[in-house]
Design goal:
The protein is mainly α. The chain has 8 helices and no strands. It has 2 domains: 8-89; 110-185, no CATH class.
């Protein structure tokens, strides 16, 4: 018996062993014109077998690249596209650097820290205080999102001072929006009324 596990491993298994055999045959064709015609036929079959690739940009270019890959880059034909570089295809992806910025309070998020850093730069005191009130309300909203227990306004004001290095503060008499009041502002979908069909 001839098992697939005993055969040569396919370079691109999605095209199957028959296409690989066709590509291997192309390498044995000596006449260049005949080799070019057969290569076009193989490309046509590859495109028919994978119609989902037609949604991808440069569909034909991708097929020709796959043909060269299955031929181990040894196929000498008149391709409409340049032969791909083996080193480029085998190049390892670049390492994505892990964010090194440490947040003081993760439940508030990094975006709020960036907003606070911009508000601190505002020179107008009244405008800076107005934004500080908005930020304080956002801090309370974020806090209650992760912690359903009630939180005091004093705790939020304290966290705001810590995050702004003492540069932002809110008047002691200012009251933050209560959680229940915020939930009233959220639009809810109207409940559907089910009617019993009369027979």
């Amino acid at each position: 018996m001839d098992y697939n596990t005993q055969r040569i491993k396919l370079v691109l298994p999605e095209y199957g062993r028959h296409i690989q055999d066709m590509v291997n045959h192309l390498l044995t064709v000596e006449d260049r014109d005949s080799r070019n015609k057969q290569a076009l036929a193989v490309i046509s079959i590859m495109g028919t077998m994978n119609p989902h690739l037609r949604d991808i940009n440069d569909f034909k270019h991708k097929l020709w690249d796959h043909l060269h890959v299955m031929a181990n880059f040894q196929l000498d034909i008149d391709s409409p596209y340049p032969k791909p570089d083996p080193d480029t295809l085998q190049e390892k992806p670049k390492i994505v650097p892990y964010p090194s910025h440490k947040m003081k309070y993760k439940h508030y998020g990094q975006a709020i820290e960036q907003i606070i850093a911009e508000v601190v730069k505002i020179e107008d005191e009244a405008q800076r205080e107005y934004f500080a009130q908005l930020i304080a309300n956002q801090l309370k909203k974020a806090y209650t999102t992760w912690n359903k227990d009630s939180v005091s306004d004093e705790d939020i004001f304290r966290d705001l001072k810590v995050l702004s290095a003492g540069k932002l503060s809110v008047n002691p008499g200012f009251k933050l929006t209560e959680t229940r009041e915020r939930e009233k502002d959220i639009p809810h979908r109207p409940k559907k009324k089910f009617q019993v069909r009369k027979k």
